[in-house]
Amino acid sequence: MSVNITELGLVRFTLLGVPGLERFYSIISVPFFIMFMCSVIGNPLIVFIILSDRGLHAPMYMFLSMLAITDLMLSLTIAPQMLVILWLDVRVVYFSRCVIQMFFVHFLTYMETGVLVAMAFDRYVAICQPLRYSAILTGPMITRIGLALALRGVLIVSPCVLLVVRLPYCRHEVIGKSYCDHMSIAKVSCGDTTINRYYGLIQIILTLLFDTSIIMLSYIFIINAVLKLSSKEARSKVFGTCSSHVCVMLFFYIPCGFTLLAYRFWKNIPPSIHSFLSLTYLLMPPIMNPLVYGVRTSQIRDRARKLFHYSKN
Predict the structure, then answer these.
(1) What pLDDT does residue 6 have?
(2) What's the CATH number where 216 sits?
(3) Structure pTM?
(4) CA atoms within 13 A on the CB side of 187
């Protein structure tokens, strides 16, 4: 028997975690816990280094701090609940909590891809319009870009909340993941989810297509400008500056695209693989981004070395 909107507070969902691999949860939990700890240590460290060193208050590093904050929040949104499932076998969540988690999972995902677009724009201006760099990417402009990305995320994800709230549900439903997202909630509904499916697919295609197109266009202009440089050393320096951003984009878009395609079109993939893929594309960037920028960005690497040296003394 389904419930109406006034009874949604009584609806509970059981999160299966990684279906089919329950007996390996103690083993599976180890790498996920390490990933979580790397994220909650690495990302705040990146933000602290950037904010504490005035030499790092350039636009590129401000966008990097936005990315680190987004990654940290994404890890905190997903990983604790996942670890509770793996360690304590606590799987039941109420509808309101599930919808809140769904909102932040999607909102932070769109923030992540939006910040990557902003970072690509930053590199484009720095390399293709170097004389106007400081005039274009001022402090207020960076703030406006951050607010615009947050507003975009809210506008895209808010309809998902309305679309799942309108659906009828039975008293207790099962979700084959360790976290709640839009289509996972919609699929366990007792009603017609056609609108949910179309909106979910359209928002993903349009947003990711737009963001990746902007990034690719930016790097076409960047590569064209770099190839015109007469000095081999200058070209190497510019490519080195952009390489960290390219690595971060690959860590996000490749698992994300593969997961979305597998989830919607490759129905024969086992549920355990689906669950693993979805966790990987959400939890991998928050641990890889600090490592990539910490290793490949000399300013952050040197500042971190000085910080640890000071703490030891």
Answers:
(1) 46
(2) 1.20.1070.10
(3) 0.89
(4) 12
